[in-house]
Request: fold
Amino acid sequence: MQQMKMQGCEVEAIGINYKIHTNKTEHPFKIFSKSPQLDNANGQEIEEEEEARVEKSCSGVRHVLKNVSFQARPWEILAIVGPSGAGKSSLLEILAGKHSPQKGSVLLNQKPVDKSQFRKLSGYVTQKDTLFPLLTVEETMMFSAKLRLKLPQQQLCSRVKSLIQELGLDHVAGTRIGDDRVRGISGGERRRVSIGVEVIHDPKVLILDEPTSGLDSTSALQIIDMLKVMAETRGRTIILSIHQPGFRIVKLFNSLLLLANGSVLHHGTAELLSLNLRLMGLELPLHVNLVEFAIDSIDIIQQQQQQQCQVETEPPRRLLGTMQQKKGGDDGQQQQSGESKSD
Ligand SMILES: Nc1ncnc2c1ncn2[C@@H]1O[C@H](COP(=O)(O)OP(=O)(O)OP(=O)(O)O)[C@@H](O)[C@H]1O
Reply:
């Protein structure tokens, strides 16, 4: 583990498939589905069939993540972007070990890891801050430090102090966190504290679900700037999800994972995304944010990728056709030769 800390952690997800079972619900229009002509035996059969069909459509399985693969490297930020419901949070929860996918695996430095080992090496900042409103910033950090680190009090204090400095929270170290009822620190500062709580043990991998949600553009940029410094100075691997990142924020990401409806549409740099869009005939208009443009163009990207897949699979199919014809001939010959062998 020590060696892993020194060299940084590459996180690799391979073929993640995640399905959830949704609850069966009563068909909302069931009351209208019975027709007065269905009183005979044939009518009853039709009604039962209809009920079975409705039940099937109202219950079942939701394919949240479909064959998702990516790599996140140390010293870098990978941003997961996509429309609402694309599967960003689900993917992060799987990475953080909160859920297990039905298929696929997550590797750290090319090796499988168990959940407890991964928890020690990582920090997971959820979308909602879960902090005690009556504790001060310093007390909150100290609480987390005592839970996560087995160090003498003096060392805990100095770790907390240096982290408060790194997070730019010196000026509010003695201020209460607060909540809706008790006035406390600002939303941006609260997000910083949540990040601090999760990095107190100096994890090599940091996973953040929408660290900028609810923040103004300046506070959002400050948070991503701070994460960029953490990645570059400490060799952390940072994986985060984000909604509508501003132009300056996108520039700080080393790579983007564009998800739509549980599938990966792009994995690579922003420049590569821009180039791929251009190759699809989607020219980024001036002063339009690349990520927003890509999200708005998801339907076209999907269509183009499907067409490309068809083109890629067609020649082998044609080839397969000729091969099958040939094989048919060969088989005939083989059969003959087999027959002659058995003879
Ligand atoms: N426990 C669950 N029960 C029902 N549906 C779920 C559950 N978990 C995820 N989903 C569904 O899976 C899909 C992906 O959800 P997820 O929260 O991962 O998306 P997201 O990209 O993070 O969305 P947002 O940006 O709005 O947070 C959604 O359609 C969601 O409704």
Q: What stands out?
A: The chain is about 50% helix and 20% strand.
